[in-house]
Amino acid sequence: MAIDKDRTITINGDFTMELSGVIAKSIIELSASSTIEPIYILINSNGGNIRALRTIMAALKNSTCKIITITIGVARSSGAILFLLGEERLMFQDSELLFHEPRGTCTNCTYLESLEFSSGCKEDYNFVIDEILKKTNLTKKKLKSKITNKHYVLTPEEAVIIGAATHIITDFSQI
Question: For residues 113 and 105, what is the distance between their CA atoms, to the nearest angstrom?
């Protein structure tokens, strides 16, 4: 199967509300144009706004198309959660995933400290935990031990072992 450039969405940068609107619109339009052909989402992102991610996620959940996510560099934070939303999740050999506990509006504090600053932080925290647990074989206890007050960085090999990625690829011809 070759990647269809006309059905590809490339995310190269941080998630913002403006970007999420553009991506959600593209997903809706691609879904309307064909329910048979997959949508490819290429991800190279350090993450960003979790609310922006939820906008994209709503469009994906309403799509009848197969979604194939591909990490072409880094998929960190919200980018890693988006990566998990694919039915097929492909990682280039030199790419990485990074998960961490969400910090809401507080960037230099722990989850517990951020609860004081953001009423939605607990909801965001549970959302992140739930999405990771849905697509991996990690237990809640193990996941929390990996992301509490630190970054959980995964190589493609590690991502396949825990179920986060379905395949490792070395070039686009393998898609």
Answer: 11
- Give the burial class of 66: count Cβ atoms within 10 A of its Cβ; 0-12 exposed, 13-18 middle, 19 or more buried: middle
CA–centroid distance for 135 within its chain: 11
d(CA 151, CA 94): 18
CATH assignment at residue 48: 3.90.226.10
Q: Specify the pLDDT at position 89.
A: 98
Sequential DSSP letters for the chain: ----GGGEEEEES-B-HHHHHHHHHHHHHHHHH-SSS-EEEEEEE--B-HHHHHHHHHHHHT--S-EEEEEEEEEETHHHHHHHTSSEEEEETT-EEEE----TT-SSS-HHHHTTT-TTHHHHHHHHHHHHHHHS---HHHHHHHHTTS-EEE-HHHHHHHTS-SEEESSGGG-
The total number of structural domains in the chain stands at: 1
124 found inside a domain: yes
What is the per-residue pLDDT across 37-79, written as a single tens digit (0 to 9) for each?
A: 999 999 999 998 888 898 999 999 999 999 999 999 999 999 9
Residue 76 domain boundaries: 5-162
Residue 170 lies in a domain: no
* Stated pTM of the model: 0.87
